[in-house]
Amino acid sequence: MLLTIDVGNTTSSIGVWKGNTLAGNWTISTVSERTSDEIGMFLLSMLNFAGSTPEQIKDVIMCSVAPAATRAIVNAIKKYIKKNPIIVGTGVKTGINIKYENPKEIGADRIVNAVGALKLYGGPVIIVDFGTATTFCAINAKGDYLGGIICPGIEISAEALFDKASKLPRIEIAKPKHIIGRTTVESMQSGIIYGFTGQVEYIVKLMKKEMGGDSVKVVATGGMARLIAEESKCIDIVNPFLTLEGLKVVYELNSKV
Length: 257
Known about the structure:
Elements: E1 2-7, E2 11-18, E3 21-29, H1 36-49, E4 59-64, H2 67-81, E5 86-87, E6 97-98, H3 108-121, E7 125-130, E8 133-139, E9 144-152, H4 154-164, H5 184-211, E10 217-222, H6 225-229, E11 237-238, H7 242-255
Parallel strand pairs: 1-4, 4-5, 6-9, 7-10, 10-11
Antiparallel strand pairs: 1-2, 2-3, 7-8, 8-9
Helix pairs in contact: 1-2, 3-7
């Protein structure tokens, strides 16, 4: 069995693989103050829920964009799973040729997403990840990571409205009944949902033009992917587990070395 962990800025995703089957997956808040023992207890209960034990875990691989939270997670894995996790970064084989001027600037999760998308869908492909930030990644048919776009995420944008505009309430991010809102809440929901849908449509249109045509597949992942995909005509595939699948592929690439 393989344990895969994606440590994000806001939430962390955890998946247990039995062969090619994702036997269980969970999402927890990324909290830098959480101790390794707290994380360890969660990991043990998670494995128990999936009908497995720490002894059945052959290896652990993880990627992280939250260094402050990573140490406690690594220590928990060492103490409770008895494994030294593979951390995606320098020295880990991905099969991706990065065209960024400074490859170290790219978040490990974006590279892992690229690996997963190429394996599952082939290139050229655009990946839209609706996380703390909304990121767009461009990968060509040869597996070159060309670059991408980083935008404020949906949830932090909604929170910014609440925090900075004294008369605007905190809202549930959901599709409103009408595009023209008839209440403040509906108006904010419309702005968030359709505003971000328009952002995705326009950015993907320009990316496809620069990448050479409409044959480019568009894959969406992240917590808000399905909500936006319901309104967007440019998203071809929604895969909420793309990062976990990419981690599995990266592990397979490195276990053969």
